[in-house]
Amino acid sequence: MYWYEYCPKHVKSKYQLLVFKDNQPFLPLTDYYQDCLGRIDKSSATSYLKCLLPFFKWLEEESNYQGNRVQWNESEGKIRVAVEDYLQHEMSCKVRDKDSFRFVNLTNKSPTTISRFLSALKSFYKSMIRLKYYPHHNPLIDGQAILHSYKEEVRGVREDKPRMPSVAGTEDPVIHRRLTDSYFKIINEEWQPKIIDDMNLPYQVYQAGKKVNWSQREMIIARMLFETGARTSEIIELTVGDYRQRRSHQEVSTFNKGSHGRKIKFLRFSKDTVKRLFHYIDTERKSYDENHLGFEQLPDDAPIFLSANGTAFTYHAWYYHWNRAMKVNELSFNPHKARHWFVTSRLREIHNISINDVEIQQRKNELIKYMRWKNPDTMNIYEHHFDEAKHREAHENMMEQMAQRERDYTKQHKSSGKPKLAVIETTKIELVDEDLQELLEGLE
């Protein structure tokens, strides 16, 4: 019922994207996407839109408020009831009341997009209010909680009096922390990266592409995903100038999530992929280009990847080819997981080639900078995976040693009778660590 298409380059329009409902333009979501551009990056705006389309379809077909369907522009109370129903019945969440807002508990059946959906819906109503399409308050904002927190901040030690200036020294310092204004607050969300530890995974994907006759373009993009650790949009939207900016012929400049199009990071890929890329540009791409230009003649702003119509290739068009290859070959693989596979593989290599802990930490810091992670703690989750792997290896060695000792014990028992039990004396141990003390007590 709801779908979208990018506006063709040869069509003059103020909209870069059109959302349709029953094959007719649907302006609220179309104007929302346009309003997002410049406020958030294009890939985030598209991601938000994709989260909203199923919800709007659900509103039309299954929402229920006192026997009637809920329209997107109804009062905030009705919208909140609809969203709560959607979270419970469509996203398998548990929702409970708390003061003037709702707590949202995720379950093992909940999708990973719930936080993004709630952010997208809040963003949508902010735009609708800004564009004067929605006459009510934002249903995704808890105004009462913000007002209460503000009152607490400005209340002074003197009854019914405002706070004194901080230089007076009579007031406790205000703890400056970001207050969430969300009406629906997720309370058990803890992001965990997907640890993809199959070394042969890229080659499975390449073979899947060959079976459905991927073109050079799809194969190069897939190779770049695994070799660079980049997001798909960061690769698909590359320009010829992005390649020319770098000194190394194995690198390109690109944008990062939240950089608003600024080219603040670089990607590095293999020499084989470089050869494939230039062959694509001078053959397949050249045939699609309206002027049939090769690499040397192309301007810096020319997109590297073109559609068969000669327009800039898009994520939406690329995903069709990716999804088809995965379905035909019965692979369940989201393209973003290639990014996690890259990090896992790089960490394994770091541990294999580093001589000491100092080298390991130095190379991990280099990887953090390359990935442009805002929070370095992201690395800790991946490290946990390697800690578990090391534990399994050590545990397996222990099991083998126990098996050998069992054989030795049985052999000794048969030859010399009942052996004596070795006892650890603990009465003279002082100032011992609590965990060690608990362990020793367990031996008595």
From TrEMBL:
GO terms for molecular function: DNA binding. Residues 24-129 form the Core-binding (CB) domain. The keyword Methyltransferase does not apply. Pfam families: Phage_integrase. Keywords: DNA recombination, DNA-binding. Residues 194-396 form the Tyr recombinase domain. SUPFAM superfamilies: DNA breaking-rejoining enzymes. CDD domains: DNA_BRE_C. One of its GO terms (biological process) is DNA integration. Belongs to the 'phage' integrase family. This is Integrase. It comes from Sporosarcina limicola.
